[in-house]
Predict the 3D structure of the following.
Amino acid sequence: MGLDLGDLIRTALFLLFAALTAALAAVIGPTYDNLLVPELRPEALYPAIGASGTDPANFLASAAHFSTYLLENVVDPAITLVGVGIALAYLSKALLARWAGVLDGLLPRLILAVIGANFTVPIAGAILGVAGGLYPVVAGWDGGAWQQWVHLAGWGEISFSWDNGALAFVLSLVEFAAVFALLLAVGLRDALLGVLIVVLPILTLLWPFRPLSPLARRAWFLFGELAFLPCVLIIPLELAVNSPTPVLLVGYLGAAVGSPYLLSLAGTHLVAFGFPSGGATVQSGAQRGLATAPQGARAPFAPAAESVRSRGAAGRAAWGATRVAGSAAAPAAAPLAIAEVLGHAGLHLARHLRGTRARSEPPPGWRPIRGGGVG
């Protein structure tokens, strides 16, 4: 019973890409389970802002202490200087009649700004408390099944990789890029919350002055968006549980990475602060997968192609096709490899026809026979 060479090559390629997909899955799973999921726990996202302990997981405690330090040493002296300046302006109000209306509107805004700057940490704690009370409710849907990667990817990814080969490998690379982008987004969110808690008292004090008031307004909007961001980000992960296809899973992960866009409608544009774009992440992951898949397929066949390079036209064609297929992305790799084989075949055919024509010509030195008799 003979073996079909095409089926044998197809089986080898499927096994290769299944192994590569399994290797990527072995990296994605621990990255999701041991890094992303612990960062998305309620106690990690919403620690007590007023805690005085030294818990390293409470990234807001040191930020709150730093904010109090700046409030006492920077904001309060600035409040005194601003108050003295406004008092002097009111004393000379007769000389500054042109600015009388501005001064009358500035005083109540300054009072509100002073109160807000001194109570920044309690106000921020109240916002985080509301978001922290909502998040466990949203994250607890379906018993928190999103907390294990196997519930998202499932065991069907093995059969999918067997049936689709390189496509499964490409999608696995996109999944890894999306999970890593989510990991960075959550870390960036925590860092920005800590920074905002420190600088909000200073920015709040600038709110009465109209040229600088957008800074305070956008900072507070950004703080609220960052506080409620996990409540939106977790929804695609919950919907990704038991995804029927890896394509849908990639879509849900892209939606999770693009969740800052949903909150950017308030006007602060979280992506401008470094949050990854969902479309850009999926696109870069797909491009990386399409570029890597031909190289992964070339690796096991390159030594064999190199060994037959000097064994005739067929060996040179196999070597050229392997070399060209690994030098381009997945869509262009196949036509380039076919073109390389056709080029070698055409060259070999041209040489063969030229050799046949040369053998059919009379040897040099023999005069051609003209006429038909002996006479």
